[in-house]
Each structure stands twice: as structure tokens, then as C-alpha cells.
TrEMBL record:
Residues 1-20 form the signal peptide. GO terms for biological process: GPI anchor biosynthetic process. Pathway: Glycolipid biosynthesis; glycosylphosphatidylinositol-anchor biosynthesis. It comes from Triticum turgidum subsp. durum (Durum wheat). InterPro entries: PIG-H, PIGH-H_dom. One of its GO terms (cellular component) is glycosylphosphatidylinositol-N-acetylglucosaminyltransferase (GPI-GnT) complex. Belongs to the PIGH family. Keywords: Signal. This is Phosphatidylinositol N-acetylglucosaminyltransferase subunit H conserved domain-containing protein.
Length: 124
């Protein structure tokens, strides 16, 4: 099974040469991160499935804005690997990718945020 998720082409705030970013999840092998440029060039980075410790859904807060990012905690790496390097897809798009990565890496991904998990009806 091959699962590919791609963001739409956005130009505002990004270099004109950048067209799209995509994630290709190959359950038995790993995850391929791609950056597509208008010139036709594609930069690919492959992360083996055994190297991914845990996918992380982060809420990033700056003095001006707030956005969500998807990153992976990698074995033997000091820094997180961002899934989308330039684009900032909405959290509604990131959650299914995050859950798929959790399933493929056998990570227990839980969250207390209402945007990620279903709200408890008894609390409402």
C-alpha cells in the first residue's frame, strides 16, 4: 500500500520556484518527503521506517501567528525532521498524516488537544 499526501501549490509568502510538498508513506520501507519546484526539479529525502521513533504534531506559537507543524523524532538525530519544510498546511490536513505515520511506525500517538482527538461528549 502506498499513500501519498500532497499540499496544494501556494505562492504567497514563498519563493516563486516552490510549487508543492508531498509525503509518500511506504509502510514496509519508510517515508519519502518531496519538495516540487515549478522548474520540474524534485528534492527527495527518504527516512527508513525503523529510524522514526515518533511522529509529532506541534503547535507553533509566534508573537504574530499560530500554526501547526508535523515533525518526526528520528533515532540518532539531534533535531526534529519537519515533514513540510516550507508550507504550513491546516491541522485538518496534518492529523490524518500524523495518524497514518503513528500506525505505520507502531507509535502510540495520543493527544489531549480537541483538534486532534475527538472531544468527550460528557465534558461538554
Amino acid at each position: 500500500m502506498l499513500k501519498k499526501v500532497s499540499t496544494a501549490c501556494f505562492l504567497s509568502g514563498f519563493p516563486v520556484s516552490l510549487c508543492a510538498e508531498s509525503v509518500v508513506i511506504m509502510p514496509s520501507f519508510g517515508v519519502q518527503l518531496e519538495i516540487h519546484f515549478w522548474s520540474g526539479r524534485v528534492d527527495r529525502h527518504f527516512v527508513p521506517i525503523g529510524k522514526i521513533l515518533k511522529p509529532l504534531l506541534n503547535e507553533c506559537v509566534t508573537p504574530v501567528t499560530c500554526y501547526w507543524s508535523l515533525a518526526s523524532l528520528l533515532r540518532d538525530e539531534e533535531e526534529l525532521k519537519l515533514v513540510f519544510q516550507k508550507f504550513r498546511p491546516p491541522v485538518k490536513m496534518l492529523v490524518p498524516i500524523w495518524r497514518a505515520l503513528c500506525a505505520f511506525t507502531d507509535s502510540e500517538c495520543t493527544s489531549r488537544h480537541s483538534a486532534v482527538s475527538k472531544p468527550n461528549r460528557s465534558e461538554a
